[in-house]
Amino acid sequence: MPIANNFVKEIESDNYRFNLSASFCQDCHLLQIDEQPVKELMFHDEYKFFTGLSEHMRIHFHEMFEEYFNEVLADSKEVFIVEIGCNDGTLLEAAKNRGLRHLGIDPSANVVARARERGISTEIAFFDSTVAKNVKTSYQSADLIFAANVVCHIPDLLDFATGINMLLHEDGKFIFEEPYVGSMIEKTSYDQIYDEHVYIFGILAIQKVFNLVGLELIDAIPQSTHGGSMRYVIAHRDKFQISDNVARLIDQELERGYDQVETYKKFGSECESRKFELLKLLKKLNSQGYKVAGYAATSKSTTVLNYCKIDSQLISYISDSTTDKQGKLSPGMYIPVVSHETMRANPPDYLVLFAWNHEIEILRKESMLTSQGMKWIRFVPKVEVVEFHEN
Ligand code: DWN
């Protein structure tokens, strides 16, 4: 596999490859990839993902902020809010707009530059226990720490949890969201597995990891974002009542066998079936002379394209809103990336919905194409051609 976000200018100009496979540990309940490229190859000053490109996610993060912020607002002390993996500052903008003391920490200088343009206080760093200690010394302990789609990117979970333990105020909360292992299994969304996602978490695993450093999981709330995520709320031990959600959702995990390696073996064979079904469909459309393109050059699409071996014969281009990806080639399979405007000017017969997790937002945006007869191809939760009609 190539680096999921390494969009290149020329064919074969990237020769770095790693072996993408995953294992499940029945003791700690972590599903994790076996080999991860060094972090500097993935997160750097040309990182290609900007959170704020999705309006739906912007609203989601602002609502998330307001929900927890209101709790700490009751205190008269000066509030300090930290976001780990702040990206372009989409979430922290809500803190800044309220004039609150805040800090975003992210290792990718280019996305941080975007956050700074918005007036967000930031530090460029990979968050770990040393950074946590320094932040606490230079600022204060954090009343709220947020992270969204970040913790599953960090290999040394124990050191990470130690850092949270150090930085979190004794009455504070650490709130984070990650793609949920249960959603991935139920939908066979194998594209959640790529270099940046070291882990796909379930509640059993999260509870164990944070318990090891003296923290406690006090709530778990399912989210529809990113194809099915889980929000976890962590606090210092015995500070808050534990929500009933935790026991209920853990029971559900056990009932569904998310603690059993057999479940993951079955998931593996489901992935193989989806791969053959998608290839079969694309080859059929190609032989019938239809023009097929992709919608959104997501990180996830790198797994789909390389795992299924889909090249520009089968998908002639991918349209994407990220200017840094346009004019480049997709990692490994070298499919050209163009703007949505270019795609709309000469639409294909079929569009493969790579950003299936943003389906509602995208269909709303592209309703004109759909009404003109352009068809969509889904590969999650099953491979199918969909003709959407407006009610
Ligand atoms: O965890 C991660 C998630 C949250 O974001 C990261 N490791 C990287 C990234 O993953 P992804 O690229 O799979 O994320 P998305 O949000 O599913 O897709 C983003 C891509 O989709 C961008 O290239 C922009 C594109 N896009 C688009 O072209 N039109 C997205 C939307 C919503 C659109 O309307």
Describe the structure.
Residues 225-381 form the C-methyltransferase domain. InterPro entries: MeTrfase_14, SAM-dependent_MTases_sf. This protein has 14 helices and 16 strands. The chain has two domains: 27-259, 3-Layer(aba) Sandwich (Rossmann fold), CATH 3.40.50.150; 278-386, Rossmann fold (3-Layer(aba) Sandwich). It starts with 21 loop residues before the first strand and ends in a 5-residue tail after the last strand. The chain is α/β, with parallel strands linked by helices and 391 residues long. The longest helix has 27 residues, at 261-287. Bound molecules: ligand DWN. Ligand DWN binds next to α11 and α13. Ligand DWN is lined by residues 49, 53-54, 149, 196, 226, 296-300, 320-322, 325, 355, 357-358, 361-362, 365.
For the record, the count of structural domains works out to: 2
Q: Give every kind of bound small molecule, once each.
A: ligand DWN
**Structural class of the secondary elements?**
alpha/beta
**Strand order in the largest sheet:** 5-4-3-6-7-10-9
How much strand content do the residues show? 15-25%
Through-space gap between termini: 42 Å
Query: Spans with pLDDT under 50 lasting ≥5 residues?
Result: none
- The overall pLDDT average reads 96
Question: What general form does the structure show?
Answer: globular
CATH architecture of the largest domain: 3-Layer(aba) Sandwich
**The first-level CATH class name of the largest domain:** Alpha Beta
Protein name: Methylation protein EvaC
InterPro entries: MeTrfase_14, SAM-dependent_MTases_sf
Domain C-methyltransferase: 225-381
Organism: Candidatus Planktophila lacus
